[in-house]
Amino acid sequence: MELIKFVPEQLMILVAALYVVGMFLKNSPKVLDWSIPWVLLVVGVGGSIALQQGVTALAVFQGIVSTGVAVLTNQLIKQTKNREDE
Question: Where are the domains of the chain?
Fold first, then answer.
């Protein structure tokens, strides 16, 4: 997985946290599916800025990539399960 190279070790916890937040949002009846990636993007960028202790282009980029890795992981698991059901 090439995206992992752009996520430093200290942000891997952010990827895991985004994955868990996404699962909670998915199971919440009041949250629409289309809004979940947008919420995760805001949380991911905010979390990256907080962990990097400053607003920089790199922190924003790493927040976006962290969100992408979390969503990609979710989709890989979901699509693999769907393949098994066929």
Answer: 47-79
